[in-house]
Amino acid sequence: MSKGTVRRAAGWILAALVGFSGGAAPASGDSVPPWEDPGVFAINKLPPHASFIRYASPTEALRHASAEIPLEERWKASPFTLLLNGQWKFHWSSNVLVRPKDFYKPDFSDEDWALLPVPSCWQMRGYGYPIYVNMMWGDSKCPWGKMDPPRIPHDRNPVGSYRRAFTLPKSWTGRRIVLHFDGVESAMYVWLNGDFVGYSEGSRTPAEFDVTDKVRPGENLLAVEVYRYSDGSYLEDQDKWRMSGIFRDVYLRSAEPVHVRDFFVHADLSEDCREGVLRIEAAVANEGKQPAVAALEAALYAPDGTCVLKEARPASGAPKTATIPPGRASEIKLSARIPRVKPWSAEEPNLYHLVLTLKEGGSAGRLIEAIPCQIGFRRVEIRNSRLLLNGKPIYIKGVDRHEMDPDKGYAVDRDSMIRDIVLMKRHNINTVRTSHYPNKPEWYELCDLYGIYLIDEANIESHGVGYNPKRTLAAKPAWKAAHLERTRRMVERDKNHPSVIIWSLGNEAGDGPNFVATYTWIKERDSSRPVQYERAGLASHTDIYCPMYPTPSRLERYATGNPDRPLIMCEYAHAMGNSVGGLADYWQVIKRYPALQGGCIWDWVDQALRARDAQGREYWAYGGDFGPPGTPSDGNFNCNGLVLPDRAPEPEMEEVRKVYQNVAFEPADLAAGKIRLRNENCFISLEGFRGRYTVTRNGRLLRQGAFSPMKLGPGESGVVTLDLPPLPSEPGTEYFLNVALELAKPTRWAPAGYVTAWEQFKLPVAAPPPPPLPRGPALETLESPEEVRVLGRDFSVAFDRASGALKSFIAGGRELLVRPLAPNFWRAQTDNDSASRDMMRKELGVWERAAAERKVSGLVVEQPRPDTVRVRFDGEMIDGRVKWTQECVVRGQGAVLVSMAIDPDKELPEIPRVGMQGAIAGWMNRMTWFGRGLCENYWDRKSGAAVGLYSGRIEQLLHGYVRPQENGNREDVRWAAWHDAMGRGLMAVAGKQWIEASAWPYTMEDLEKARHVNE
Hints:
Layout: H1 3-11, E1 42-43, H2 58-63, H3 71-77, E2 81-83, E3 86-93, E4 114-118, E5 131-133, E6 159-167, E7 176-181, E8 184-185, E9 187-192, E10 195-201, E11 207-210, E12 219-227, E13 240-242, E14 245-246, E15 250-255, E16 258-269, E17 276-286, E18 292-301, E19 307-309, E20 313-314, E21 321-324, E22 328-338, E23 352-360, E24 367-375, E25 380-383, E26 386-389, E27 392-393, E28 396-400, H4 414-426, E29 431-433, H5 441-450, E30 453-457, H6 480-494, E31 500-504, H7 513-525, E32 531-532, H8 552-559, E33 567-572, H9 583-590, E34 596-601, E35 609-612, E36 618-621, H10 652-659, E37 663-669, E38 674-679, E39 689-697, E40 700-707, E41 717-721, E42 735-743, E43 755-762, E44 780-783, E45 787-792, E46 795-800, E47 806-811, E48 814-815, E49 817-824, H11 831-834, H12 839-844, E50 855-865, E51 868-877, E52 882-891, E53 896-904, E54 915-920, E55 926-933, E56 946-953, E57 970-973, E58 975-979, E59 985-989, E60 995-997, H13 1004-1009
Parallel strand pairs: 28-29, 28-34, 29-30, 30-31, 31-32, 33-34
Antiparallel strand pairs: 1-10, 2-15, 3-4, 3-6, 5-13, 6-12, 7-11, 7-15, 8-14, 9-10, 9-12, 16-17, 17-22, 18-19, 18-21, 18-23, 20-22, 23-24, 25-26, 26-27, 35-36, 37-38, 38-41, 39-40, 39-42, 42-43, 44-45, 45-46, 46-47, 47-48, 49-54, 50-51, 51-52, 52-53, 55-56, 55-58, 57-60, 58-59
Helix pairs in contact: 4-5, 6-7, 8-9
């Protein structure tokens, strides 16, 4: 046995892994209860093991092997599993001191108790309130009011008391029975039929207890006491809502006295990645009173259902049959080599189904149990400073993901998980870091099935305690066992999943010997995966350099410095509100250097909660919207997602989809219709795709067609020739070629025809300049002390003398402006602007009122010809530190040419925006433009928006961020029109350079004041 195996085997015969075991719960009056003792996080808790389900026959096991079948259905199909989810009796206590201490006793009356669904978070059901803080930095941000690890004030610690009756199946008589909790926040005591069962902390990995001696025939009473906070909460200081309850599944499972306790499937590949190398290490336990003999068999089925291995051989020198002393466990090792194996990857998630069969005595003996496991053959390694999968370097095109539902809190369901994965696959996201804790077990099965790489992260973040070596929990011996326990339970639970390619020791928890210990333990237990930890930097206990939010220039400095390991950003491109600018800049650098292999965008989903105001209007609630005055809050800082809480994609998702796409298009000879395709997939060819193209003239379709993308293998490139129409050179005309690859056949995550990659090329047709405007009717100028008014045929334009604003534009007898068109040098703040203590206003706020407080020092009105009037204003802003000139040329045809120039003092801060802003009449409720779209886009986030001709109602062109902010912009606009359904309205045409344009049904001041979308 290896050293790791010896440690594991020792755990199989202990009633409790750490702390102490006993028959009764410690009283709350004890000087140090378990939930305030960092050395006690488990009482009578069974050792961890891989997730699996027992069945009565190999046929049933194989039938329920795939994650395509919902986990709940697979549990129900097993005669050895009893699901305890559903309605439980519940009582909430505001603190430990007033909880019902005797509630666990069978004769306790719970008639007046409410019903609470399990799984759920009790705050989402009206008990107490959720709290959001990014980190517990100081007492003011501590949910229980005092940052004093490991202590928790008893009068600030709410308690949930749960009771549930169940009837044990008669067929379970004589079997070993285990009670299983998948996730409970933060700590719990458990009783069965009035007898103390055990205690557990560590909210994101299972807690299991042997209740064989405590169950009885007929009805049983299960009682659970859940503490909102515990000393473990200091290790769970993640950037998330603070909620509590039994928020994952609860069930009973049974086994014969002789059973498979755990197994580790090593599904590796040979050096050339053509042959599967299968090794199985199974721990077979004997809970009986007599020695037992058991045999383990393994059969393997290919993705198409074909049996490729009827029986695995015993590993070299290891027995297939084990003699197991009572109260002990023995290890059985099997191995096999699978020729012509189909490797697993996110691009091709080929899954094999393994069925383990345990028999009594030997191969001809009585069947004890059959266990299915979906596995994928793949090889993960770091070689030459690069992360390799199946021998090839891969890019981590990832996101960080919290488990969060806007209506259920932590209690996410299968449909929500599948919705997340489908959206990720459709937007070319291939990796998820399970920030910052192990996720629900079914998530891993679904990622195996759909093809998502996982960076599995331990439930360790002591952010609020700080990183000081004298203070951090990472350096305190008293907390070492807790660090190890959380790491060990993650690895043992998830070790058989091919989707897990990297282990993460935790997040933002300082650094010290406790993380050296967890790294060392993982490497001894599982040498098949690399390990990462951001706070370790470039120390030896991280295999990957995984910094947070480095700039592209910092990435380049690392890559050119002879690095000894790959750099994969654990967080970057902070996706809070209107954000993710510069993503294309990152990937230009990443693709330039081999040691740079991508990263995970922070983060996936806005963690806001669904709420309604007094008028019944729905909005997204965030930190500060719950609890009494003084409740700790970091506002909406956890709304960092690429998708809204209900999973509606944010506009930046189109940028992610484009930048993360796996096929590149390059011009070869555009005039001849030749483009080069480069397949940037690592494992699949382009045979599963078909090509489409369109040619447009000023946004209008000229030609469309199809093309074959050729059988380009991974990393290969080739040129295709497209049939382009004649493209005459015409004044003011632009031609664009749009090419795309779409799925030829449906997949689990998208229908046939779904576009996975695209590009746009401006075709090289030199257009002569447009002819000058023809002469129009003569204009008349009327000047007064307040204004300069220019009158034309059926229109008039008026300028305010004091400010220079274009204050009126009447055409056809209708006023087009309801607010003057005036200079503007400010924009509504985005979340990333204001999240850091109103950073934008503090640093750039001098520009907010600059235009409104401008002073006019000169006015010139000229009429060089009858159909032309030139109105020029000169002035200054910001106490003379900015010189300002504005010129408007009114033409007889009804056109107004506007230009503005400023000359700012070089010592002034950067200008947030330079442009003009006004308000138009409400009947012009549509916008049509020739520019980038259809989605919202900005100068640093426009790769995902093609130039085209777009139109829509103004309210449809906006995006409702959780907190209202700057939105709705369109870049590279040649012209934009705001009009009614008949096309009547106002048009803006770009001059020498393209413009940006947007329209809102509210003012910028409205945006700045509003905190929620209903406001």
